[in-house]
Amino acid sequence: MSTVALVPAAGRGERLGFGMPKAFVPVRGTALLAHAVRGLLDAGCVRHVVVAAPPAEVAATRLLLEAAGLPALVVAGGADRTASVGLALRHALQVIPDTRVVLVHDAARAFTPASVIQAVVTAVEAGARAVIPVLPMADTVKQVDAAGAVLATPDRACLRVVQTPQGFDAATLVAAYALADSATDDAGLVEKLGIAVTTVPGHPYAMKVTTPFDLAIAEAVLAAQEGQ
Ligand SMILES: Nc1ccn([C@@H]2O[C@H](COP(=O)(O)OP(=O)(O)OP(=O)(O)O)[C@@H](O)[C@H]2O)c(=O)n1
Ligand SMILES: C[C@](O)(CO)[C@H](O)COP(=O)(O)O
């Protein structure tokens, strides 16, 4: 039985503004995607990686991963994150039929510690159908209307910031994607099936690189991980 990680990496990175897909943007000389795939493989609990690449960059993505010595399958991604994950999932099930646990991990969360990846896999192997890493909210959060007027202040003790990798038993993720619906994370689709989603502690280093500010933080995170 295999644990397979799907890596949606087909985004354009518009908010980062590098003029290239975000997955190719270097951090200390290595593309974000390569950092993300290496992190998954080095965690020791992921057997196969399937990357959803920008459709025009499939060959370039294969070359990038080969040059970095990272074994991964590469498929063309879709118009949004959900479509990219769906395409990678379909390919994984075709070529790795004994897939038992599926992780879905943003290329943009390239510095997620191995301990988080391992905790997610362990929880799914222990019987959870859907597992997500989360952090508590540091800020107060307001619900607002379209004009920005405050409607409510949710109790932040009940709120969590959600990271990846999110882990699923394969049948659960397949059922969620059969809904042909959309959500901002994969667990959101599982929730629509009424299936319980459980949480494990996330980590600040699993931050998503979205903006130039995040990229500066990522450089510091990698320097810390490399001990320099
Ligand atoms: N069509 C898409 C859009 C996003 N993603 C991936 O989903 C993850 C989270 O998306 P996000 O951080 O929003 O990336 P982008 O879509 O590239 O960002 P932007 O909205 O700034 O263009 C990223 O690893 C991104 O490559 C994807 O695989 N396919
Ligand atoms: C999946 C995710 O990273 C969890 O926080 C997030 O929802 C992705 O959102 P984005 O709009 O694709 O950046």
TrEMBL record:
Classification via PROSITE patterns: ISPD
Domain of life the protein comes from: Bacteria
GO molecular function: 2-C-methyl-D-erythritol 4-phosphate cytidylyltransferase activity
Pathway as given in its UniProt record: Isoprenoid biosynthesis; isopentenyl diphosphate biosynthesis via DXP pathway; isopentenyl diphosphate from 1-deoxy-D-xylulose 5-phosphate: step 2/6
Stretches of the chain forming a coiled coil according to its record: none
Record PANTHER family: 2-C-METHYL-D-ERYTHRITOL 4-PHOSPHATE CYTIDYLYLTRANSFERASE, CHLOROPLASTIC
EC number: 2.7.7.60
Protein name, per record: 2-C-methyl-D-erythritol 4-phosphate cytidylyltransferase
Organism, scientific name: Actinokineospora alba
Record site feature (Transition state stabilizer), residues: 15, 22
